[in-house]
Amino acid sequence: MTHSRLTRRGALALAAVGLAGCASSQERDDDAPGDGTDANEDATGDADDRDTPDRDIEPDWDEAAAFRTWLLDTDGNRRFDYTATFPEDADPADGFPDFFGLETDDLEGHLMQSGTHVFFGSFDPDSIVDGVDAAEEYDLSGEYEGFYVVTRSPSDGEELEIAVGQDAIVVGVDYERRIDAHRGVGDRLEEVDPEFTHLFRELPHDTTVTGQYGSPTGANVDVDEIILWGVSSETPMAETVTWVFVFEREADLTDDALAQLEGVSSDVEDSSVDGRTATVVGAPPNIPDGSSE
Questions:
Q1: What is the rounded CA–CA span in Å between residue 291 and residue 293?
Q2: What global pTM score does this model have?
C-alpha cells in the first residue's frame, strides 16, 4: 500500500494544526506542506523581474473561492495550501483551547501561507472572547476591523496573535494585512500578479489547492523555466489530481519539458500544452508506508 504526498504532506498536516501547530509554522515561512512536490523556497517569480507577455486577465471576485481574497503577495515563493475538506482522521479543532468551543464540523476550510493560518467557518467571537479572561496565557489585546485580537503569551514560547471574526480566525503576525486584503482595501496576490488568476482558472478544483512560484522539487521535476505551478483535487484523499505549470516563454515548453513534468505523477492519465501553460492529470506521487512525509 502507498500514500500520496498530497495526502501525507498536504491535508493531514494542514488540517491537524489547530493553534497547537501555528506558532512553530510561523517560523517556517513558505516551507509549508503540500501536494507531493516540495516547495522551492528560493523561487520568487516576481512579475517585475521576468520577461513575459502581460496577462490581460482579472479575477472575478464575486465568483472566486473565498480563500483567494486572503492570499498576499508575501516574500519568498508565495506558497499557499488550502483545503475545504478534512480527512476523516484529522481533527483541526482539537488544537484550539476549550474556551473557543470549536468542533471540526464548525470549520469549513483552512488556508496556510507564509506561516499564517486562516480557519474558515461560522464562529461566535463574543463567546470566544468571554472565555479569554479565565484562560491562562490568553489576553484580549484589541480589535481590528470587526475582529477581536487575542494574544497567547506562553511562558516558554513565542507570542501568538489570533484575530477572531464571524467567518474567519486568522493566526499570524500579518493578520492586519490579511484582513485588509479580504476587505478589498489591501493588495491581494492576484492583483499584484495576474499569473495566479490564470493558474486558478486552469485548475479544475477550488476545494484542495496548492500553488507557488518556481519549479517543484522532490518529484522528478526540475525545470528552471517554470514561473509558477499549482495542483488541485476534489478532496485531499482524491486518487486523481491536476497539476498546472506556467512557463515564462512558450518556446521553453517543449516535448522534452512536458515529458519531465509528467514525472510529477505516479500514473499519468493525460497531459496537454496550451501556449505557456502545461497541464498534467494523474495519480499523486507515491511514497512507501511508514514515511514521515
A1: 5
A2: 0.86
In a domain, 75, yes or no: yes
- In the structure, what pLDDT confidence band is assigned to residue 47 with cuts at 50, 70 and 90? low
Domain hosting 149: range is 2-288
Least confident of 77-91, 196-210, 277-291: 277-291
Q: What is the pLDDT of residue 19?
A: 63
Give the Cα separation of 279 and 50 in Å (integer). Answer: 22
247 in a structural domain: yes
Look at residue 293 and tell me if it is in a domain. no
Q: Please name the residues in contact with 106: beta carbons below 8 A apart, sequence gap of 6 or more.
A: 93, 121, 122, 123
Phi-psi region of 134 (alpha: psi -120 to 50; beta: other; left: phi over 0): alpha
Q: Using an 8 Å Cβ cutoff, are 27 and 20 in contact?
A: no
Evaluate whether 156 touches 111 at the Cβ level (below 8 Å): no
pLDDT tens-digit map of 231-279: 999 998 899 999 999 999 999 999 999 999 999 999 999 999 999 999 9
Distance of alpha carbon 53 from the chain centroid? 26
Phi and psi angles of residue 257, each rounded to the nearest 5 degrees, phi first: -65, -40
Burial 213-222 (b: 16+ CB within 10 A, else e): bbbbebbebe
Mean pLDDT, rounded, for 46-52:
62
Cα torsion 24, 213, 60, 244 to 10°: value is -110
Domain count, the chain: 1
- Name 65's Cβ contacts closer than 8 Å, sequence gap at least 6: 82, 200, 206, 209
Which positions ≥6 away from 191 have C-beta within 8 Å?
59
